[in-house]
Amino acid sequence: MKTSSESAAHSYNGYIMLVVLTLLVVLIIWSVSGGAPPTGAEKSAKLLFVGRLLGAVFGILIVASGFFMIQPNQAAVITLFGEYRGTERREGLRWVWPWMMRKKISARAHNVHSERVKINDLRGNPIEIACNVVWRVSDTAQAAFDVDDYKEFVNIQIEAGLRTVGARHPYDDMSDEDETTLRGSADVVNREPCEELNDRLRVAGIVVDEAGLTHLAYAPEIAGAMLRRQQADAVIAARQKVVLGVVGMVQDALGKLAADGIVELDDERKATMVSNLMVVLCGERDVQPVVNAGSLY
């Protein structure tokens, strides 16, 4: 397929042509009011008057139909009998010959929030994902001629790119390996949709300035199971932290007792003390103290 390329169009200053239109209107008014031949004039004079009048009217129609307005961040693609004749980006009132077609294309930034898409992540888990995309037209010729409907093309490619990016990574890290995940690697995952969409939309002359995930969740059919798994992981991590802290406290207690010479414990008593402290410090409920008033042994 031949790739189109934007080029500058040749158009005229619309304000100058507005002056020409005004002169033509004055001419036709003068022709009707003061320039009409008398009743008994010759036929040739009457024909000349009618011809001048029709010419002025035709000129007014020609000039009036060639005006078009270009607003800021807007462009007009100009064609002549199906042939691309350039793109006009200069702001203000412009004028071209009326048989040259003008198609206006906005060069402003567009913001699109995609629908939630249900896909499978790298491990095959069904997830729901959505993104927000900011895009704009950079090459009006490609947008007008290389794709049928560039706005619909953008919407379809956003969904396709979102599926591609979502299938590259797992939703969450279920192993001990440090890998890129959709939930935990926001900097990487938010960069990939922008790169993917720029590759896909380059054929339409469209540039994606920003793309990021706005919704990410497990599909409803597995959300409950995954929530229990996440809760289990949180409980295990908390338990590990508690155990490490308790071990340090027991070591400090035994070291302090030995250093200050408060009491000397054999290995069996140390094991008993460690066991009791671990139970007391790691337990989730308050313990009931038991006072031993007898001998240590």
UniProtKB/TrEMBL annotation:
Keyword vocabulary terms for this entry: Membrane, Transmembrane, Transmembrane helix
Ranges of residues in domain Band: 65-230
Predominant place of localization: membrane
Domain of life: Bacteria
Record keyword Hydrolase present: no
Membrane topology according to the record: Single-pass membrane protein
Pfam families: Band_7 (PF01145)
Compartments, as annotated in UniProt: Membrane
Entry's transmembrane regions: 12-33, 53-70
InterPro entries in the cross-refs: Band_7 (IPR001107), Band_7/SPFH_dom_sf (IPR036013)
Keyword Protein biosynthesis (UniProt): no
Protein name as catalogued: SPFH domain-containing protein
Natural source organism: Altererythrobacter litoralis
